[in-house]
Amino acid sequence: xxxxxxxxxxxxxxxxxxxxxxxxxxxxxxxxxxxxxxxxxxxxxxxxxxxxxxxxxxxxxxxxxxxxxxxxxxxxxxxxxxxxxxxxxxxxxxxxxxxxxxxxxxxxxxxxxxxxxxxxxxxxxxxxxxxxxxxxxxxxxxxxxxxxxxxxxxxxxxxxxxxxxxxxxxxxxxxxxxxxxxxxxxxxxxxxxxxxxxxxxxxxxxxxxxxxxxxxxxxxxxxxxxxxxxxxxxxxxxxxx
Length: 241
Description:
Helix content: 40-55%
CATH superfamily: P-loop containing nucleotide triphosphate hydrolases
CATH architecture: 3-Layer(aba) Sandwich
Radius of gyration: 17 Å
Shape: globular
Oligomer: single chain
Low-confidence stretches: none
Number of strands: 8
Number of domains: 1
Structural class: alpha/beta
Number of helices: 10
């Protein structure tokens, strides 16, 4: 299993749309994929796949073969505080990929806890607000990689008009990561953000960039339960002050 999150300590970068479309691309290749929707504010993932979640915590099938969704009904902070087993159980499920989608709160706590649960993460940069995005990316990398044992795969530049190779190289040097994809602006992609719909089947250029990301994800090694979960348990029981 590979548990992955699109991450940055900044909102509005398009993480949820990228998560949904990447999951669809993997499911189309026959991979078993679970989406964890922990964004209790917008429930964007659930809306995209017309899932209402119902009562309790349960996995529901989407209309895409091989793709299921888990709506945990509470923020990942609340889930960890109330019942760590909901998080631990993710690692024992029969899926090839699990994607964690959490909101980017002002404190960054939700983002960082998602990183703690995830084996890997992808930095998401909004080209229309590149400066703040880079600052958020640097903070996310430092905490995710050095403290939460989550491995950065690379970065995606989202909402781009035109971007030169020089800028891409500069960003790669700043973040010490490779560029995985550049998502260019288009009418269909913009509509997917506002209407919470999939663009993978509608925009050829978008599909090509998502497929590039998928090719990188397929190279990654499967991993088991993370030490982060044990650390949280110790913190909760008061072993660590």
